[in-house]
Every structure is written in structure tokens, then in C-alpha cells.
Task: inverse folding
């Protein structure tokens, strides 16, 4: 950040005087790019990626640096008991009602600098701009840097947003450990959030939640749009499928007598991907992880285990697709003399974003001549947690080449700025 | 073996007196089962399997114990310079022509006690019986315990038989190491076979080679036969196929825009296994090893690498099959927006066994009312190396459940004995 130059903007509103301290250098530059780069320096890896896992040193440094930045720029900042960070712009008319805006600070392992971070930076810049241009809002606005979304250190996701909405509490993590065997609570304590001080940080003052995020897909790029307004976040089901056959000699077992678990898996994957392509343009089905046992070139596979990830924004479509493919799996297994075992380990329901705020965002982008489209989010986001409790809005900026969760993640500066422009206007309409 | 009781059988033949020392206990029992069990004690594992890798301690102990057993039973025994062990019954008329009979002493890791070992024991018992019943043969007979066939310690196979036939020499192993980094030559030296003493142990005195082995398949069991006479040993081609696609987000990448390496692989495996089933009953095609990168449930597979093992006893059938499937792979890769790279790393030609000895074996089994059938061997055996240079005969006894290379390997005592009966008769016809 270099040396920090402040300008003191003084508002007089409803008889009160408020002083909002703004980092002039950044405000003059209005540079999302510079701030994203700066935030990406916390947890920067040798490969140019970012690894910033919940409650680690780089995570703590990033949150603390953001807290300082907020405070230096006139937003009083505070943590809740699990490490969600809030920077508050107090409302003047109904200060007890809050427009929450932001995203998550954690990353995947060797992720990029935009995923999550851009949403925090964009919200921060938007709020400073609003404060600068319009003074304090009627409703309060808070910028949030959510502590965790990705599930990259501990096997649970949305720790930040789920605590705020009350769907998770400390009980959910009492047996959770990271891959080094460190308990969730121990990690939390080390980061300065003593589980003994925990009390559910549920927020009942939230009027609406607005998040901006990189798309993590190619829809906007392909359509030549700068902005996406998300109407639904897809539901996700994740299964593990285990096919049991019989290991046998690759040379001495005639084809008709085989119980080849990998051939059954191959036929099923062929069927389900063809079926997904034919069912609905928004349906996606992925087998991303697959292991073969014993995995030897001259031995017929005795067991194959694979994951199956199915997403759509309408639950009946998922239901019907699953019914079709698992019926086929059953038949295939019989035909191939193998057995199939299916277990469901994740079932996130589709979530509808608030159509009013979505419509508002579409209209505002039209006014500003930002090329914008409605879309479905196939990826999960904090908005889907908030959207179950409060009106929520999720905006996307393009991801170059659709790449995310990678050091190659990139969004053009123009697109970052267009996103902040629209976010600023949406927040203005909601809070002023 | 407990205490050893010898009886001295004295033959008078062509004016000479030969004394053949026979272990009476074993000979009385005529127990292949007991000897297989005994040999399996060298390298016995905790799971009840056998791990007896080339030039290891258990390998050396097994060879030395066999050498002692041969010598105690009247067969002068010797090693060649790489550790193949021979027990010789000298011929009286053309002692310079030798009928070689036996199999390999090494096992896979956690293998069974029959694979290889049974062939050595059967040959040993057969030769003792012949000596006992008929005295010395016209041609010499040698029982061989081949030092290596499986390729389980070092990445090369048939080290024993390929030295005898001259297709391998010391140059072939000069850069070869085991998985612990020990060089082949160092291991050889440690086992007592100094590479400095190496001189190609090629045998030009071999009249024919006769091997008996467990089937390692279910053909005999399924057909209710006790014996198989192998007409051909299948050729084998092994390929590595690499499919390159593009890793991408499982939720945000619509099906038509995917470059899913695993889906391409699945379609190819589906096609090739269906095609193999339709082409020829003797053709087998196996994908036994497959790895996915990055192998994460919510990431589309960017790369999939798998092996392909194709076997048939007629090369034109393999040629035509490979042509068909790789043409399909090319088309599939284009259709799926992925790339495929195919590399051949093993190409063992089919080998025909000697039809004269095969016919003889069929007739002899008919005489003895042993239920017998001609068959193809889909597995590789030392006979395929010998069969390229000398007339060779390969006989099979059933493997229960087709299981081999496993502690579960099992062949019934009756079947072991029927095999020795037939082998004895075949050797009798060839050497007397």
C-alpha cells in the first residue's frame, strides 16, 4: 500500500456531522486492480497463486490488514466471534437495518487472487464511493470479509455465512480436523477466536445481502457481456459410486466371463454424460475423481470408486436425472456381473436470488450501458446461504477463459471496474 | 522336509551301473502337494502368500534347497552363470541332446505357491519317477528351475529363459534397478552370481522344452477338464493412452463446452470392450490401470492416462482390432474436443507350441482317461521364449476360480497329480 494519504470528507446530515476518512491515493486511483493485487499478497505462493486457508497465518494477516484498511478509510471495523470481519457505514434513518455486502477471504490451495477477494475489495470501494459521493446512507451498510467459504482446510464449507444465518454453530465443528490432524477449534483459538467466547453470531438486522464475484465460467466471456445477474444458484448433489467386480488375469479371462468394474464405470459415465447433454442446457454432471483397484495394467479392475457431481437450479430436474441414471446403473451392473453402491454425501438445494434486486441490477446496468445478462450460477457461493434467509443478490464479472481456483485466474481491469460501478449503484438504491 | 530317508535304486543299463538316490518318503507319498507346500515356505508372507523375488534371500534359499533336493535324489545339479538351476538325468544314447522341463522359481509380490513352483516340482517328480521306473533315458533330461519370469522385482521379464535362448544378455540389465534403487548387477552379485563371471548361458543342446503350469484362468474348471494342452500362447500388446482435455469447474462449464478427458476415456473403454467381445472369442482387451488428473470431485478431468492390454494368438487379429479401436479413438477425441496420445510399450508376438508334442500329449491323456482339451494361453509363460527357438510344449492344470498371483491360488491335489502323470508320459516318449 505504500504510504497512506488520507483526505477527510465531512458530511453534514440531519444535524449530525460525520467524518469519513478516505485513503486518497486509492480513492483517486479507484483501483480495484491494485487492491486485489495487494490482498493477493497475503498467502502468495511460489507459483503466483494464493493459498489462504481459514485461521492460518496468511488468513489472519489478510483479515487484519483489511480491518486496518477499513478503519484507515473511515469504516469502523470489527470481528464477530468466528472471525468474520465487518466494516460499517452507519445509517442515519434506520441504522438498525443493514445492507450487507462482500464475499469470502479464504481461498482454495493454489487458488487465484480474484475468487472471493474481488468481492470484498469491490464492496469496500463501492461503500467508500457512496460515502464520498452521497454521505451516510439511510440504512447502514456493512462490508463483510467472510472467514470461510471454500472448505479447503477443513471438510466443511460456508463456515462464515452459515454462522451469520444460524445454520451452523460450534457443535458442527467439534470433531472436525484438518489434514494435519489439527482440530478446528484449536485452529480457531490460535487465530485469536477462542471457542470459549463463542456465542452464535446470528444477524437479524440484515435487510439484504449483495455479493459480487468472478463468474468461474465462460458464459459472460462467450456472450461478450461485462456483467451477470444471477437468478438462481444451482442445487448440487454429490455422490460416491462404488462398482465391485472381480480382479482377474487380463490374459486368461475371456471377455464374457469378466466382472470388470472399470468397464461398468465407463459405460455408466458414457451414459450419464450423454444423458446430461440431452436433458437440459443448465444441467451439468461430472465424474471428476475416479480410482481403480488394484490399478495394474494386466489385472482386470476389481473395484472402481468415483464421485458424481450433479447440478441444476430446479430440484425436479435433478430428481428426474438421478432417477434415470441410477436406473441405468442398476441395469448395467446386472448386465456386467458387477455390483454398484451409491451414496449421497452432499445435497445442496437450489436457491433463488431476490428477483426484485436482480431486476434493479438489470435496469441500472442498462442505464449505465453495461452489457449485462441474467444467468444461473453453477458454482456455490455465500449468496446461496444468505439467500435462504434474506433477499440476496449475486453479480458476476467475467473470468478470462472461465478459469478459476488457479493462479491463472484473471479478470480484466475494465470488467472489475464495471462490476464496482454497478454494485455501487445497487447499494445506493438499497441503502439511500 | 523333516528327516530324509533315501532308498538307493540301482540300474544296470548298457553294461553301466547307475545309482539313483531317491527320497523314499517323498517318493512313497508321490506328493506334489507336499512339495509345493514345502517350496512355498521360502518367501511365505504373513497373509499366506509367497513373495520370492529374483536374487533375494528367499529366492536364494529356495534355489539352494531345490539344488540339495535334486542332489539328494540322485540328480546332479548345477547353476548357470545367472542362477538358473538344472538337475540332470544323463542320457545313455544321445546324452548331448537334452529334454528340458521345468518352470520359474520367482513369484509376484504376494503371489501364490503354485505359479511357477508347481512346474518345477512336477518336472522333478516326473523325472524321479522315470528314473525309478525306466532307469536312465536315451536323451538327457534336465529339470530346470528358471531364475526369473514375472518381472516383479526388476522391470524386465523372462530373464531366465531369455538367457538360455540367447535373446537377453548382461547388456540388457546394465541400467536396470529395482524400486529400492538397487542395480540388477549388484543384486545378482549379492546372490552369488558375479556379473564378472557372466558368459551367455545359451543352450544349443535342447531338443525340446516341456512346461507344466497352473492355468491362471477358468477355462478348464468351467469345462470340467483336468488338463489343457496349449496350442498357442497369445501375443500381447500393451499401450499407454493419454487423453488431454481441460480441467474446469464442474458447476460452471456447460456440457457442450467441456473438454472432459474422463468422458473421452469412458467412451473409448466402452467401445473397445464391446468391440473385443464381438471380434473373436479369444481376443481379450483390458484397461486395468487408469489415473485421473487432478482427480477432484468438482473439477472436470483435464488428463486421463490408462493402460491397454490386448491379446490374441493370431497377430492379424490384433492388428485389425487395434486399427479399429484407434480409428475410433481419433474420431472420439475430435468429437469430444480432447487429444489422444497412444504409445506402445510391449509387443510380444504370438508363439505356436509344437503341434507334434501337443498331439502326443492329447493322445497320452486319452490313453490315461485324463479329461483334456486343447487351448490357447492368454498368459505369458517361459514356453513362449523357448518356443521361439526349440519345439516347446505347455500343459495346464486347473486353477480354482481362475485365481492366480494371489495367496488364494489353489489347484486340487488330484489335478496336480494328473498333470504329473501326463508330464511323466510325455517326457518318457521324448527321452526314452
Result:
Amino acid at each position: 500500500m505504500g504510504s497512506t494519504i488520507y483526505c477527510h470528507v465531512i458530511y453534514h446530515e440531519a444535524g449530525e456531522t460525520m467524518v469519513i476518512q478516505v485513503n486518497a491515493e486509492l480513492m483517486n486511483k479507484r483501483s480495484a486492480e491494485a487492491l486485489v493485487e495487494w490482498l493477493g499478497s497475503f498467502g502468495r505462493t511460489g507459483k503466483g497463486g494464493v493459498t489462504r486457508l481459514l485461521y492460518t497465518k496468511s488468513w489472519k494477516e489478510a483479515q487484519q490488514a483489511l480491518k486496518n484498511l477499513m478503519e484507515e478509510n473511515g469504516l469502523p471495523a470489527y470481528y464477530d466471534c468466528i472471525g468474520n470481519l465487518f466494516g460499517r457505514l452507519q445509517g442515519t434513518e434506520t441504522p438498525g437495518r443493514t445492507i450487507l455486502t462482500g464475499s469470502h477471504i479464504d481461498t482454495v490451495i493454489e487458488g487465484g487472487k480474484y475468487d472471493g477477494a474481488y468481492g470484498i475489495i469491490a464492496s469496500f470501494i463501492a461503500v467508500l464511493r457512496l460515502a464520498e459521493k452521497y454521505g451516510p446512507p439511510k440504512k447502514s451498510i456493512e462490508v463483510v470479509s467472510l472467514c470461510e467459504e471454500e472448505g479447503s482446510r477443513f471438510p466443511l464449507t460456508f463456515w462464515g455465512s452459515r454462522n451469520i444465518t444460524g445454520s451452523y454453530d460450534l457443535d458442527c465443528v467439534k470433531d472436525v480436523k484438518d489434514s494435519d490432524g489439527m482440530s478446528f477449534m484449536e485452529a480457531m483459538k490460535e487465530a485469536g477466536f477462542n471457542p470459549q467466547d463463542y456465542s452464535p453470531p446470528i444477524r437479524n438486522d440484515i435487510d439484504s445481502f449483495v455479493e459480487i464475484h468472478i463468474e468461474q465460467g465462460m458464459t459472460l466471456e462467450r456472450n461478450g457481456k461485462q456483467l451477470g445477474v444471477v437468478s438462481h444458484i444451482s442445487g448440487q448433489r454429490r455422490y460416491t459410486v462404488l462398482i465391485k467386480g472381480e480382479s482377474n488375469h487380463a490374459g486368461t479371462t475371456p471377455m464374457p466371463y469378466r466382472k470388470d468394474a472399470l468397464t461398468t464405470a465407463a459405460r455408466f459415465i458414457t451414459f450419464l454424460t450423454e444423458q446430461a447433454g440431452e436433458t437440459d442446457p443448465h444441467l451439468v454432471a461430472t465424474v471428476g475423481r475416479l480410482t481403480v483397484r488394484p490399478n495394474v495394467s494386466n489385472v482386470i479392475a476389481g473395484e472402481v470408486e468415483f464421485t458424481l457431481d450433479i447440478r441444476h437450479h430446479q430440484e425436479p430436474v435433478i430428481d428426474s436425472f438421478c432417477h434415470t441414471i441410477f436406473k441405468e446403473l442398476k441395469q448395467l451392473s446386472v448386465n456386467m456381473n458387477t455390483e454398484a453402491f451409491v451414496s449421497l454425501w452432499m445435497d445442496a438445494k437450489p436457491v433463488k436470488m431476490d428477483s426484485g434486486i436482480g431486476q434493479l441490477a438489470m435496469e441500472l446496468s442498462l442505464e449505465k450501458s453495461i452489457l449485462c445478462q441474467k444467468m444461473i450460477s453453477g458454482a456455490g457461493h455465500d449468496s446461496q446461504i444468505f439467500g435462504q434467509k434474506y433477499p440476496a443478490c449475486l453479480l458476476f464479472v467475467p473470468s478470462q477463459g472461465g478459469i478459476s481456483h488457479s493462479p491463472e485466474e484473471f479478470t480484466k481491469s475494465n470488467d472489475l471496474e464495471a462490476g464496482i460501478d454497478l454494485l455501487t449503484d445497487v447499494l445506493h438504491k438499497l441503502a439511500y
